[in-house]
Automatic annotation (TrEMBL):
InterPro entries: AB_hydrolase_1, AB_hydrolase_fold, AB_hydrolase_sf, Epox_hydrolase-like. Residues 78-285 form the AB hydrolase-1 domain. It comes from Adhaeribacter arboris. This is Alpha/beta hydrolase. GO terms for molecular function: monoacylglycerol lipase activity. One of its GO terms (biological process) is acylglycerol catabolic process. PANTHER family: HYDROLASE, PUTATIVE (AFU_ORTHOLOGUE AFUA_2G14860)-RELATED, MONOACYLGLYCEROL LIPASE. Keywords: Hydrolase. GO terms for cellular component: membrane. Pfam families: Abhydrolase_1.
């Protein structure tokens, strides 16, 4: 009997440690390979990745997503649905997923078709189609109610989703959404083939220089979000990524949502980093007067909250385009207070 007890204690301890390591391995920062293909094979996401099969414009596509469950899951509680920005993928929500699962929320994080680990088909991309894909994902997972959080381009998509499926969206959070101004009135039009040629010439240096505009001060932990897309530029199938990027840029340019903000009926929170000056296509603006007024997020946030009658605004001083990366604690605090 003594022998059994002495043998079982280290075994139980070993099993506990294995369980702990497996559970937490998904939430650690992964190494980024030097080369990544169009669907990021070889790059580990913070939580297990699943796939939804879709058919769009007669093309077979796969939509990648993470579905993170808390230890104590209440199925009656709305899930949190996180929608990524244009130059990102679901993995950059790592800290936010970890935080909200610790608060007891189920968190669903898709990579939209054309991004991340999802397929990169050449399509007529539209926010309506992306919203439809996302609705199909929720239907497949049996989700009927959600707290919807969209960052940057994800804010445009979240708005479109909320307009199309208001019965699903309990509350809406827009984190520094792009599209709070009509880019067609500010930025000269770029034909798709020219946009593609520009994307095809992307380098790690150009990505880093652009990403530095997202933050008032660059930190080493932001490097991951440069290295992942940079690794794709070295892949033989980067042409797929570049074309999808050009096509989704055109989607953002051609499909503004600002004229429909007043139609939103659900409680809405705008979290706006006050140092953000992001404008999609900013480098193409040659008129200095236009450049001076474009992308003024403090002003755009106030205007948007006046358009959405059921909204409130949280401004974060000295914060740039990505609050959930720059000041995660402040972002999570603002969102948690709103969701309650």
């Amino acid at each position: 009997m003594v022998l059994i007890i002495q043998w079982r204690k280290p075994v139980l301890l070993t099993l506990f440690l294995i369980s702990f390591l497996v559970k937490n391995a998904w939430s650690q920062t992964p190494a980024v390979p030097e080369v990544l293909d169009a669907t990021l094979t070889g790059y580990t996401y913070p939580y297990p990745v699943h796939y939804l099969n879709l058919k769009i414009e007669n093309q077979a596509c796969r939509m990648a997503y993470m579905d993170a469950l808390p230890e104590k899951f209440n199925a009656a509680r709305p899930v949190i649905l996180l929608l990524h920005g244009k130059n990102f993928m679901g993995a950059y929500w790592r800290q936010t997923i970890r935080y909200f699962t610790s608060q007891g929320y189920r968190v669903i994080v898709p990579d939209q078709v054309g991004f991340g680990k999802s397929s990169k088909p050449s399509l007529h991309y539209s926010f309506h189609q992306l919203a439809t894909n996302t609705r199909q994902l929720l239907d497949t997972l049996g989700v009927t109610k959600a707290f919807l959080i969209g960052h940057s381009m994800g804010g445009m998509l979240a708005t479109r989703f909320a307009l199309m499926y208001p019965e699903i969206v309990v509350k809406l959070v827009l984190e520094n959404p792009i599209g709070l101004e009509d880019y067609r009135a500010l930025v000269p039009y770029t034909p798709l083939d020219i946009a593609y040629q520009k994307e095809a010439k992307t380098t790690e240096e150009s990505i880093r220089n652009y990403f530095k505009t997202y933050f008032p001060e660059w930190q080493p932990e932001y490097d991951e979000w440069v290295k992942v897309p940079a690794a794709q530029t070295r892949s033989k199938d980067y042409t797929e990524v570049a074309l999808a990027s050009a096509e989704t840029y055109d989607m953002i340019y051609q499909q503004p949502i600002i004229y429909e903000l007043e139609q939103l009926q659900m409680p809405t929170l705008l979290v706006i980093g006050q140092a953000d000056r992001t404008v999609v296509g900013k480098a193409n603006i040659k008129d200095k007067a236009v450049l001076a007024k474009a992308g003024n997020y403090p002003s755009l946030g106030r205007k948007a909250v006046n358009q959405i009658r059921t909204s409130k605004l949280v401004g974060l001083p000295n914060v740039g385009h990505i609050p959930h990366l720059q000041v995660p604690e402040a972002f999570h605090k603002a969102v948690t207070s709103f969701l309650k």
